[in-house]
# Entry
Amino acid sequence: MALIVQKYGGTSVANADLIANVANRVIKAWRDGHKMVVVLSAMAGETDRLIGLGKELAEDPDPRELDVLLATGEQVTVSLFSIFLRSQGVPATSLLSHQARIYTDRAYGRARILGIDTARIKEELKKNRVVTVAGFQGVDEVGNITTLGRGGSDTTAVAMAAALKADLCEIYTDVDGVYTADPRICPKARKLEQITYDEMLEMASLGAKVLEIRSVGFARRYEVPLVVRSSFTEAPGTLVTVEDEEMEIVPVSGVALDRNDARVTITRVPDRPGIAVRLFRPVADANIVVDMIIQNTSIDGHTDLTFTVPQGDLKKTMELIRPVAAEVGAQQVVGDKNIAKISIVGVGMKNNAGVAARMFEALSGENINILMISTSEIKISCVIEDKYGELAVRVLHDAFDLGQPPPKKK
Ligand code: ADP
Ligand code: ASP
Ligand code: MG
# Structure
């Protein structure tokens, strides 16, 4: 009999009926003799509602108190879930982060899991109870409540599966697997039977929110057998796994769109050693993650410098950069939220020439202007105007024939 960690996202537990519906899935697996740990998200929309409430009282709510507030969303679903299970004669115990002993650092709103002490959970499982664990939340070394960042319940589930050495970690959501592109944007998107950890990591980091990026990092590091499935159907889902010989051999396996970044341009920056560090040091010290950076070749001793940051950090970044830019004698700092990052991902890209050219050609065919480009071994990303984001997904999906199942290696 297996030890299974299942995670249900917000849309799967959005109301009492849905909770009962997914709980029946858990009951079935438990009656079949499996040991069940169930990680839950807050009801759909609840985390946003709570953030909104906080913002009614403060423009920039205190991060510690905000985490105390946001953690309540998951407290509601684990208790309701266990109430239903018990009403069906299934012994169940709900655990919040301090009870499940999910230890994190103190980075409120983006806390990192440092370790999980599984003793309590194992005790409950030994008593043959279903354990429901509040996703998204953790506890620091002195007992402060933290949250892991949006979508963080995925990470709770995978980290839990790794810590428990579970036989399987199933992520139940509102689509029946990982697709070649977001199926809500691209009707021709095709469900993948398998995807490598590396590709999934890139897809997640580039905006495919079906799995939160840190969860994929955990899954890769500990080789957690990870499946993405729908909580509304019995379809088999997508296995996220190590690269194997028989896997699809295509240069591009997916397209991802990220509409959450903003662009900052600093014009006429004097081209001298030490300027970049003066500009970027304060941004780094504020814990703001800079993604793409582009610096033009200097013509007359000045260059333009452009980089991207999460939209939510744009205001802060501008406040930090403006005074330094003035100090070093740059001309102007301009922020722009109307951008999107469109990316193609594929492990097969490594050995394939011409992928970038094909991408640029497809975008130019629709008159989509490319504002920035960045590449890695298995992805190419372009920043474009936000209004073309969804069109670009469909265009690239067509250009790389992603709707067609690729040939197998053997
Ligand atoms: P949950 O609340 O269950 O965690 P999310 O909304 O976080 O669900 O993630 C599921 C959503 O991810 C889907 O509804 C889909 O629109 C989106 N998505 C983006 N890219 C992809 C992709 N490549 N494959 C599947 N879903 C994707
Ligand atoms: N409830 C949290 C969020 O909405 C965590 C999650 O759903 O994974 O981001
Ligand atoms: Mg999610």
